[in-house]
Amino acid sequence: MKLQIDNFDGSGLQDYTAAIEGSRPPQIIRKLHAADELRLSLVADGPEFVVPATGARVLLELRNGQPVFTGYMIDSPVFEYLGWRERGPAYRYKLIAVGDQTLLDSKRLPDRCPFVERSAGDALRQLTQDALPDVFDPGAVQSLDTIPSYASDPQKKWSEQAGELATAARACFRLQAGALSFTPAGATTHNFSESDGAFSPQALTLQPVAALINDVTVIGEIEPQAYVKDYFIGDGLTLRFYLSQTPFIKTNRTLVDEEYTGWPLDPTRWSLTDPAGVVVVSGGRLHIAGGTGVDGATVVQFAEQIEMGGALVMQHGDVTFDAASSALIGGLYTGSISISGCLAGFQVTPNGAQSRIQALINGTATGAAIGTVAGHHYVLTTRLYSQQIYRSRQRFHSSVHPAGQPIGGSPVNADVRIVLEAHDIDPSDPTTWTGPSTVLYDGVISTAPGFCLYALVDAANLHCAIAFTRLVQAVDTEVRTALPGEDYVTALAGSLRDGAECEVTSSGTLEFYPQFAPAAKQLIRVQYRGQGRALARVTDPLSIAAQQRGVDNGLHGISLRVRTPPARSAEDCENAALALLDDSVRPAWTGEYETWSDGLPANADIFPGDGINVLAPSRGAAFAATVREVDITIRDLAAEHSVYKIRFANDAAAALAFAFETAKIEAGLDVVGVPNNQVGHTYLADLTDAEITSATSTSVTLDAGVSPPQGGGFEVRWSDVGWGAGNDRNLIARSTTRLFSMPRLARVQTCYLRQYDASVPPKYSRFSAALHLDYPYE
After folding, report:
1. CA quadruple 393, 395, 396, 401: dihedral, nearest 10
2. Final residue belonging to a domain, choices 474, 507, 537
3. 45/121 same-domain check
4. Are 234 and 588 within 8 A, CB to CB?
5. Which of 68, 278, 561, 769 makes an SS bond possible with 290, Cβ 3.0 to 4.6 Å?
C-alpha cells in the first residue's frame, strides 16, 4: 500500500509510506452514514520529515491505484518524543484523518425552501452542489424513490442530511476519491456460507435477538383530521368570530421571501433562462426589459415544485410596468412553461401604450381584465385552497420492500380553489394602499394536479420591475361570504396592506378589518381541517397465532414514534407499520465476521450498506443482513494484507429504513388494531362535501354531499366519539338519505357526520365532517 499526503505547501502529494510505524498497524473505521476514519502513527527520525499539517489531504491506496481511504487531517498530529537515534531526535506522530465528507460537513448549507416531490438522489446531489459546487463527481448517485417533501436544515451537517435521505430511501451513500455514490442498500452483496471453502467458521459470531414484534403502533406527526365547516352570520358590527376547532397548520410557513438584493439570482430559489439577456437585478428590484418574443423562452422559474394542498398565498410581486408588455406572471404549470400548459396565472397583454392584466386558467384567458396605469403598482396574488393538505403519501421501505419498491407513495386526489387578485396601488393616493383587491378569478379546479411548476415570469416581451416575491403557507382556512340572495365569494385573508379583508389566526380566530365588517345577515362560511396526532396500529394475525403458548396470547406489541421518514397522516402510520412488520415478525440477527483481505472476493472491498447473505446451517442461521460497520487493520503494508472485522444486522434487529424518536407523546394511544391484510380496506371515504344547507330556530338541514352507501347511511353525533351501531349515547340520527334534518337545540351547536356501509361490522369514514353553526335565533 501507499500513503500519500498533500500538505498544500506547494510540494503536492508526498509519499509517507516509509514513515508508517510498523508496530502500530494503521486502522480504518467505516460506519454506515458516517465519515470514514484513518488512524495511524508516523515516525520521524530525520530533519527532512515534514509534519502533516491540519487540513492536509490524505490518500491510502493499493499498488493498483484502488483507493482504500481518502480524506483530510482535521486536527494537528499528537506527537511523542522517542529519544535520540542515529539521525537525531525521533518523534512519533499520531494521525487521525477523516473521510472526504468532512469537507462538506464543514460548510454551512444555505437556507432553502423544502425539496418537493424530488427523488432522494436528486436531493442529495443538490445538497452536495449547495455545499461545494462542482467539487465532487455525482455520476454514481442513483435517483431512487421520490420523497414528497424534505426540509433541508442549515443547522444540520451535510452528513446528517445525507443520512436522513439514505434512511428514507433505504439506501447508502459513499464519498471517496472525489466521487459521490448513492445506491440501494445491499446493491453489492457478499456471501458468508459454511459450504464455501474459504469460509472460516470460527471467525463468524452470530447473536439471535429476541425482538419479534407482531403488533405495531406507529405514532406520527400532528395531522389534518376532521373536515370542518363553521357557519356564522354578520350583524353589521361584529368583527371577530371564533372557530370551533384549531385549524391544522403546516410546519414550514414561509417558503420564499425574496427582496431581490443581489445578482445573480439565488440558485437555491430560482433558475433563469434568459437568451436575450433582458433580466437583471438592480436597486432592490427584478427588472425585465424585453424578451425574444417567444412564449417560454425567457423564464424565471422557482427551484422547487408547488404542492397544491392546504392554503398557499403566492405574492408574485409589486409590479410596475414601463411599457406595453406580453407575458405570463405568477404562472402554475402542469408541464412545460408555456401559455398552453398554464393551469393558472396572470396574462399580461399590450393595451395601447400600457398593458392589461387578465386571469389565465387552463391556457385560456378568463374573466374581466384590468388596464394598467403608468406609475401605478400592481400586487398580483394567487391563493390556493384545498381540503387535502398533502397531495402524496409518504414512502416506506423494508427488506421486503427495498429501494424502488416502497409501501405507500400514492397520490391524493383533491379539488383546489384558485383565487387570482390584483391590488392596484396609486402612490399619490394613500387610500389605495389599504383599498380592496380586484378578484380576477375565483373558481375550483376539479381533480387538480398534486404538484405544479411555478414560474414568476414567462416573458415574451415584458417591460416591468418586480419589488418582491413571497410564497407563504397560510393558516389552512378558506373564508367565503354571501350577502342575502347572492352566491358565496372568497373573502381574501391576509394583511390589510395587501388588499385583504380579514385574517385568521393560528389560535382559531377569524377577524375582519373594520372597513370590511360583515353586513347584517351576511353569511360567513369558514372551511378548514381540524388536527390531531396521527396514529395507526397494525397486527400480523399469522404471527400472533404462531406465538400463542400457554397463557401467552401471542401478541408482542410495541409503540414507536417515527422520525424518518415522517409519518404525516394516519395512512402513513399504517404504511409505516406494514413496513416494520415485514421484518419484525422474522428472526432477528446481529453478527460479526473477521477475515483477512485475501478472503474477500478478488479485487473487492467491503463497505457499510453492502448486503450479507449468511448461510450457517450448523447454527440454524439463514438470513440476509446489511453491513453496519467495517474495521480494517492493515497488518502488512508491503504485501497488502489486512484484517477485516465486519459487523452486520438484519432489519429485524435494527430497522435500516427508519429512525425513531423517544420523546413522550401527550396523546392517548388507544387505537384499534387492523390486521395487515386489511390495511387500505378498513375505511370509507370521508364526507368532504357535507354542509349545512339551511337553519331555522328549531331545525338544521344537512346535505351529506354524496349518496349513501348501498345498505348503509350517515351517522350524526353531538361529539366526535362513539362511532358504531352499539353506541347511542351521543347519537343524533342515522339517515339513509343524502338530505336530512336534525333538531336545533341552541344558538351555537356542532354535529359530526360519518358514513357507514352494510359490512359486518360496518365500515365508517376515517375522519368526521364537523359542521358548526353559530346563528342567532330568528
Report:
1. 120
2. 474
3. no
4. no
5. 278
- For 177-265, list the strands marked E by DSSP: 179-184, 189-193, 204-209, 215-233, 240-242, 254-258
The CB density around residue 777, as the number of other CB atoms within 10 Å, is 10
Domain that holds residue 279: 254-474
> What is d(CA 560, CA 584) in angstroms, rounded to the nearest whole number?
13
Rounded Cα distance between 604 and 507, Å, is: 60
Question: How much is the pLDDT for 667?
Answer: 65
Tell me the residue type at 341.
G
Give, in degrees to the nearest 5, the angle at Cα 574 between 571 and 579.
Answer: 130
Strand order in the sheet with 699-703: 691-695, 699-703, 739-743
Could you tell me if 268 and 311 lie in one domain?
A: yes
For the chain, what is the domain count?
5
Q: Are 463 and 591 within one domain?
A: no
CA distance 469 to 537: 43
Express each pLDDT in 454-482 by its tens digit. 999 999 999 999 999 999 998 889 999 99
Are 329 and 434 contained in the same domain?
A: yes
Please check whether residue 521 is in contact with residue 484, taking contact to mean a CB–CB distance below 8 angstroms. yes
In angstroms, the CA 385 to CA 470 distance is 17
Check the CA dihedral 530-533-534-538 and report its sign.
negative
Q: Is 297 exposed, middle or buried (0-12, 13-18, 19+ CB in 10 A)?
A: middle
Q: Report which of 193, 204, 189, 192 is spatially closest to residue 610, judged by C-alpha positions.
A: 189
Out of 427, 457, 474, pick the residue that ends a domain. Answer: 474
Question: How high is the pLDDT of residue 143?
Answer: 97
Q: 678 in a domain, yes or no?
A: no
Closest CA to 514 of 529, 503, 524: 503
Range 182-194 burial, b when 16+ CB lie within 10 A, else e: bbbbbebebebee
The contacts of residue 500 (CB under 8 Å, 6+ apart) are 437, 492, 493, 494, 513
pLDDT of residue 33: 95
pLDDT on residue 88: 73
With contact defined as beta carbons under 8 Å apart, do 435 and 422 qualify? no
- Given a contact cutoff of 8 angstroms between Cβ atoms, the answer to whether 255 and 512 are in contact is no
319 and 412 assigned to the same domain? yes
Those residues with Cβ within 8 angstroms of residue 311's Cβ, 6 or more apart along the chain or in another chain: 383, 384, 385, 386, 473, 474, 475, 476, 477, 478
Of the candidates 387, 384, 388, 408, the one whose C-alpha atom is nearest the C-alpha of residue 397 is 408
Q: Are 383 and 492 in contact (CB under 8 A)?
A: yes
Flag residues of the chain having pLDDT under 50.
none
Residue type, 577: A
Paired sense of beta strands 326-333 and 285-290, if any: unpaired
Question: Residue 608 belongs to a domain with what CATH number?
Answer: 2.40.30
Task: Give the cell for residue 466.
Answer: 418586480
CA distance 608 to 627: 5
- CATH at 122: 3.55.50.10
C-alpha to C-alpha distances, 135 to 132, 528, 627, nearest whole angstrom: 6, 47, 28
| Distance (Å, whole) CA 763 – CA 92 | 74
Helices (H) and strands (E) in the chain, counts: 5, 56
pLDDT for 602 equals 62
One-letter identity of residue 662: T
Instruction: Indicate whether 658 belongs to any domain.
Output: no
CA distance 519 to 534: 40
Rounded Cα distance between 309 and 449, Å, is 10
Regarding whether 383 and 297 lie in a shared domain, the answer is yes
The answer to whether residues 153 and 70 belong to one domain is no
Same domain assignment for residues 57 and 127: no
Say which CATH number the domain at 753 has. 2.60.40.10
Q: Which residue matches cell numbers 390531531?
A: 532
